[in-house]
Amino acid sequence: MSRSKTKAPSKGGGEKPILQRMGAYWQLYLMLLVPVILTIVYKYIPMYGIQIAFRDYKSVRGMWGSDWVGLKWFIRFFSSPNCVRMIKNTILLSFYSLLWSFPIPIILALMINQLRFNKFKRTVQTVLYAPHFISVMVVCGMLRVFLSPSGGLINLIAGTSIDFLSEAAAFRTIYIASGIWQDAGWGIIVYMATLANIDTSHYEAAKIDGASMFQRIRYIDLPELVPQIVLMLIMSAGSLMNVGFEKVFLLQTDLNKATSDVIAVYVYQQGIEHAKYSYSTAVGLFNTIVNVILLIVVNKITSKISEDVSFV
Amino acid sequence: MGKKKSAGQLKGLSDRSSDIILVVICLAIVLLVAYPLYYVLVASVSNPYDVYAGKTFLLPSGFTLDGYKAVFADKSIITGYINSIKYTVVGTVFSVVMIYLTAYPLSIKDLPGRKFLSIFFIITMYFGGGLMPTYLIVRDTGLIDSMWALFLPGGVAVGNMIIVRNFFEHSIPKEMIEAAEIDGASKWTTFVKIVIPLSRSIMAVMVVFSMVAYWNDWFTALIYLPGQENAPLPLVLRNILIKSSASASQASTISGGYAELNKLTEMIKFSSIIVAAAPMLVIYPFVQKYFEKGFMAGAVKG
Lengths: 312, 302
What we know:
The complex is a heterodimer. By secondary structure, chain A is mainly α. Chain A is built from 17 helices and 2 strands. In chain A, strands 1-2 form a two-stranded antiparallel sheet. In chain A, helix 11 (168-196) crosses helix 13 and helix 16 (263-273) runs antiparallel to helix 17 (277-311). Chain A is globular. In chain B, 76% of the residues lie in helices and 0% in strands. Chain B is built from 13 helices and no strands. Chain B has helices spanning 2-44, 48-52, 66-73, 75-107, 114-126, 131-140, 158-171, 174-182, 187-198, 200-216, 219-224, 233-255, 263-298. In chain B, helix 4 (75-107) packs across helix 7, helix 4 (75-107) packs antiparallel against helix 10 and helix 4 packs across helix 12. The longest helix of chain B is centred in the first third of the chain and has 43 residues, at 2-44. The radius of gyration of chain B is 26 Å and the shape is globular. Residues 1-10 and 245-257 of chain B have low confidence and may be disordered. At the A-B interface, helix 2, helix 3, helix 7, helix 8 and helix 9 of A face helix 1, helix 4, helix 5, helix 6 and helix 9 of B.
């Protein structure tokens, strides 16, 4: 209060005091009221509620009344038999997924951008977007039908009868390939939007200079995309520990657990199915902490890379 | 002139050959993406034994609509359908209203505290309480088994809100708002009479995004709406698509009874996939240009 009073006059000299300025906007603050309340209740209070990871949550006593137990739940997680496997699976599944899925939309966008027949271009885009509009549940249903050992499409084509979903070795491939099928097309939109802003006279000038299609992509399109690529990389790398919970949950079988056992599913099972609220929160918190560290590291690295690129 | 033309033709040729290669590659990709959906569609109207024998790669075999009849005779699927429509309509209206109520004030550059409020919302994109603390708050605010559990905890879709805020900042002339306010319009009036009508295209984008999200969502319902009668369509389908196939494969390992597998169950799988996916797949090509524009409006410009 006293801070804002001293701050306001020093800022603009002739400006009105802060409360009066705010008063002129009371209708806008009123608009924000409901969103702010919802965000406090359902976003900020749960953040504060993370402390149940350090308490022994008892429903009767509530979030703030249960006893402190220090790092008990974390120790229990780290000494649980599948802990290493889960951490490894979580990181590998996300990392491989990023490695394979990240470059594909960029390549697709560069290719589609070169298409000269507008009707064909639109059709290609329309088809590529389509899988994004399908529910993960339906995609997993399709996968189960396609991968079924008898009569499944893949086995029919290959002439085999492998039960893919029972093969731990196949799980990551299934997860990543279906992810690419569903979302690579949608991923091109951001890049297409950037490419659409490129002045067509650049292309014409390049053509007159005799640049091939490949050279035009290399020297006109790609540099234009770099900032967008770096931004997308930071955003996706920042969620390296957030594997697509829904799909793993739906595709997991007892037989593929060696590669499909991930932290997110464990958090759900312990928390919702077994009502171990504190334990589940602690495991989830560990996941978040690793994630934040990764976000910071990736941010550092990519900002270095993008600096280098802009120097070239 | 003549010299130029021949040089142009030469380049035209090499361009044409790379064009052809490009078109062929794109066609191959399109086929790869579209074929699985086409196959499901074909299989859904075919005799399941023919599907199992691999006779339906290209065209339906033994045409039948029994699968669809069975799907629409199933009470739980109908209830799921109605629930999904209800959640999608209410949720979309709620989300778009929340996005607008947040994006407009935050787009006003001289609003005192604007920066603080923006950060207040954006932080929630990167940090959260996680599954259990959120679950406990939703439970403690009495939303379990209430449809509002699907909408309120998500509150403001911050990513979408930022797109709309950028649109307001770049595409609505400040002069119009100032002129209206000089004429005595209140902030609320300018919002309703000027800003909302001028932002129809971005509103269409938000409607599409929210619709898709709510139509396809099942996890929130799995956690917060445990009652069977509240389940949205994808959750109903879980029993048919995910659980039954698991038990079927278990059955096969025990008794080797795959040949005995219920004909109807298999048909229902294919037709229910189509029934669940169709509404969004039919709607989106009509609104495609809107969301492409929306991404343009939200794209980084310098």
